[in-house]
Amino acid sequence: MWVMIGEILFWLVVFGVTAGMLFMNVFTLILYSDLEADHINPVELCERVNGLVLPEYLGQLAVAAMLLMRGFWLAALLNVPILYWNGRRWLDGKHLLDNTSIFTYLPVAKRHSRVKLGFFLMMFFFYLYRQVECVVRAGMRWDTCGCAREGN
Amino acid sequence: MQPPRPNGHAYGEAASPRGTDRVAGRPPWPGPQAQGAAAGYAPGSAIPSAARPGAAYGAAGYTAAAPSPPPRYPGGGAAPRAHHGAPPPGWASAGAPAHAPPPQSMMAGAAALDTSTLPRPELDAHSVLHRVALGDPVPVAAAFGAPDVNAYGGAYGAAVLPGIPPGWQPRVNLCTYDPSWCCPWELLRPCEPHFMSMTVCAFPASAAVRAKYGLPLAAVVRPLAPPPPPSLLGDQTDEAVPVVNFGAAGVIRCRRCRTYINFAVIITDGGRRWRCNVCQLLNDIPPEYYAPLDANGRRIDIQQRPELCCGSVEFVAPSEYMVRPPQPPVYVFVLDVSYAAVASGALVTAVESVRDCLNVLPRDGRTRVGVLTFSTQVTYYALPAGEAGEPRIVVVPDVDDVFLPSPEDVLVNLDDARPAVDRLLGKLLQLHPPASSSSSSSFAPSAVEAATQGGALGSAIAGAFYLMQHWGGKMVVVAASRPTMGMDKLRDRDDVHAFFTERECRLLLPEDGQYKRRAVDFTRAQVSVDLYLTPPAGAYVDVASLSSLAKYTGGEFLHLSGFDASRDGPRLRRALVRNLSRETGFEAVFRLRASNGVRCARFHGRFFTRSTDLLALPNVDADKTYVVEMGYEESQVLGKHLCAQSALLYTTSGGERRIRVHTVVLPITSSPHDLFRSADVNATVNVLAHQLIEHCVHRKPESARRAVVDRVVDMLVKYRQLLGSAAASSTQLLLPDALRCLPLYTLGMVRSAVLSRDAAMVAAMRTDCKAALLQALDNGGVSTLMAFAYPNCVRLEDGQGLPASMGALQGQGLVLIDNGFEVLVWVARDVAPSLLTALVSDDVARVMLAQPAPTHPPPPKLLGEVLLSLPLEPESDRGVRMRRLVHAVLAARTDAAPSVSIVRQDTPAEARVHAMMVEDHGASELGYAEFLATVQRQVQQRLMGGSSTAGR
């Protein structure tokens, strides 16, 4: 029983973290379009976007680590490309936006953000599915248990 | 039927029958008048559409017989390309290549080796001096006066426009005119190209048309450009930019797109409204600005309205254009008093230059001045006002946490505290006498310590910023070492082995964001940093990191490596005096507006980009050039004309807010031919050089070289495709007339010290020098970067130009060689002693002519400074005329502050000259003829590869 609840909680956490990253990405994209419309200045934009980089990378790492520890190989594998990409950016020192060259880099940054958005969206539904599946399975077992008890 | 032949110049005889008959009976290189005739498309004469102007250069034959085979290619067979990592395809197989030129052109190769027929900029005396001052003369008239009126919205020719004199010739920035504009033809004064010019004088109507052109689409703007030196261009009267004050009406601008009113707007409704030529919105004219229209539909006061007649105007901005009251001119001098700076004499030079310049700083009672010195600690100087003001020293020993002791006395009104400032500058020299510190360092252990420790440059800059952050203004920093203590330390990341590897480009970028961040903070406080670095020989100062301070705050940057006051002092002094004495604008913003559908894609220059089309410039002056690359927002640009308007809003040193507006109107065309015909090679080279900087800091040199060459190959392929079947079979190199020298300029850029191993070796380039050269390039104006792409060689005697080739220089006596960032006077082996004596003084000439040569000849730069210090009167003197020419060249290079040296033939210093001769063979570099041949081969390969892909 507790195993089931643990699993549901696990997926809930994974799902929540992914939703958070998804939200951060949407927020970043909104900021980019604000910058293009001149509603925000590049210095502020870079401060805000750069503030989101570390949480996102950590969240990504945490999700992957959790999946790996629970032995969900497929889900962990899906996370590998973006982890690799994040790692490369970090090692190259390119993970932060530079407010002096942001306008040159903006099209690229937007594209990156969109690709990541797509990825997170996919993972979001994937985790959602796993969570619902988990809940349904737990419910079924609960039902069978309950039925059995009632039957007794 | 004879295929229509490219109507242009054909170089290289017998490569094809078409080539021969063009060349016959004509001088190999047509002079300016011959060129116009040869091009032969004056307005009115119809040209069949296929027979577009082009120049056919029979380069295919050059490879077969290399001129006097250089030692590196024994036997003329397969050429070993040892460490030249970017062999152009097919080059190595010169003997038996896959794309061998046909036999008859190989035969012709021998004849074509006469390299004097290759395309070059005009080299007569007038053209060369024009080139020095303003870049190549661009004959838009010949290149663009197209007879097919439809391409320009029917705006051409006397028949179409009754108001235009019949002999009207379009020129740069005035390729089109429309009678509906508010300005009558006779009064129109277009924007001068040295203020603003576009890379093409016609604008492609859509991204698809633009893609068939292949070269950048950009505006090169030098908003406050000085008038070109009159000594170079004769008595060309350059009219000042008119200043317009709208008074109560306020600055007249479009309501929607904020475009300033200009000569190309349409005034309607009896003078009550005007139609914006950028967004087509109909705007009301305020009653204060109203004037009725005359019978021709012109405003009756049009003669008194320069803003409606001139391409360049300056508006007086009312208080709506101020966020705060106009700032006073603020100057803070940050001087290095460390051992290295004192010993090399940099401090003395700096202090004396500043002292001389105090008189030329704006003197209207508002100017504020502060002085800071630093070594291992930061020192402020309190400067009390009044006659008896005695400067007080305030030391901040803790360089990790700089604070401002007493703000009110440190940044003082220059007029009030002038005696104290003068005393302080005298005292600085007493406190740090160059003699004592250089004589015996054992008596000054602290000085030795400082020499090894470097200084607290970062802390000093931070301290100076605290001083001026509420004012804004100019921070002039003279420093001899890298910040090694205190705030914003930089480590020694120099790596000699990184030279020409992938690691090098990392070294050319700022190490860490710290100085960038600081620069952005400074920009927001309207503080600009002018950085003069005077490191001792061999010291690494991390130019790449420090220069971001100047780059993002719109400041000046000069790196004098191995500084020695006797040799480099005058140059530093020239640069400082120029910086402090030229007109400086404060708290400026720059914006470029263009018609609907066009947007600004990228910017180059020294600024901070504040929004998609707005550049923030804490300081702006006459020596700053900005490049705006344009792109398409929509797939198509509608209308007949494109209007590009640059606006610079700034505070003059007199405390007035001004808007400098340059407006350029281009015809919109859907024919790529027009783009090739109307290209402005000066602006194009400028943009390509700016793109080269980005290549250099993001790729390794070999791939940067490839990218630069690919660009021109790409353009030539597109041109060939455009010419269609007529040219497809030609083995000649077909060059558009307006861009006939572009391959030469590309070769020059590839062979410059930033990309060529040869040239860099000769110039003893280190990472610092390279980073500094890139910074200088970033700020280069049109003529400077033209000289960078192809050095100007001028015979001093008569101003005659020479090709950049050692062969051409032989026996020419005294030749001035100017590559934009360095000016050399080359003295031939067999120079007439009287000529040399006339140029330099008697004793110097004796030293130079001494036989045998002295074991320690005076350094070339020292001789150059001696030359500059000689008198410039009377004019009748032959030597004076030559010296005036040197000074005039220097006056055209205020944006680069070049060094001047005298180099004698057959001395080791001459290697620098050899490296500049871009037409000659280098140890690992192609000569001009060979380069053209490889370009031609790459074009052929692309065309063959392209035809198969095009069939898909």
UniProtKB/TrEMBL annotation, chain A:
GO biological process: vesicle-mediated transport
InterPro entries named among the record's database cross-references: Cornichon
Localization (cell): Membrane
Chain segments annotated as transmembrane: 9-32, 61-85
Its membrane topology: Multi-pass membrane protein
Record bears the keyword NADP: no
SMART domains reported for this sequence: Cornichon
A matching Pfam family: Cornichon
Keyword Lipid metabolism: no
Keywords: Membrane, Transmembrane, Transmembrane helix
Gene Ontology cellular-component annotations: membrane
Family stated for the protein in its record: Belongs to the cornichon family.
Protein name: ER-derived vesicles protein ERV14
Source species: Cyanidium caldarium (Red alga)
TrEMBL record, chain B:
PANTHER family the record matches: SEC24-RELATED PROTEIN, SECRETORY 24AB, ISOFORM A
Pfam families: Sec23_BS, Sec23_helical, Sec23_trunk, zf-Sec23_Sec24
The keyword Protein transport belongs to this UniProt entry's keyword annotation: yes
InterPro entries: ADF-H/Gelsolin-like_dom_sf, Beta-sandwich_Sec23_24, Gelsolin-like_dom_sf, Sec23/24_helical_dom, Sec23/24_helical_dom_sf, Sec23/24_trunk_dom, SEC23_SEC24_subfamily, vWFA_dom_sf
Segments forming domain Sec23/Sec24 helical: 680-757
Every Sec23/Sec24 trunk domain range: 326-580
Highest taxon above the source species: Eukaryota
Segments forming domain Zinc finger Sec23/Sec24-type: 252-289
Residue ranges of domain Sec23/Sec24 beta-sandwich in the record: 585-669
Location of the region described as Disordered in the Swiss-Prot/TrEMBL record: 1-53, 71-106
Any one GO cellular component localisation term in the record: Golgi membrane
UniProt similarity note: Belongs to the SEC23/SEC24 family. SEC24 subfamily.
A molecular-function term among this protein's GO annotations: zinc ion binding
Low complexity bias spans: 32-53
Name of the protein described by the UniProt record: Protein transport protein Sec24-like
Xref: SUPFAM superfamilies: beta-sandwich domain of Sec23/24, C-terminal, gelsolin-like domain of Sec23/24, Helical domain of Sec23/24, vWA-like, Zn-finger domain of Sec23/24
Any single GO BP term: COPII-coated vesicle cargo loading
Cell compartments where the protein resides: Endoplasmic reticulum membrane; Golgi apparatus membrane
Entry keywords, A to Z: Endoplasmic reticulum, ER-Golgi transport, Golgi apparatus, Membrane, Protein transport, Transport
Organism of this sequence: Cyanidium caldarium (Red alga)
Principal location: endoplasmic reticulum
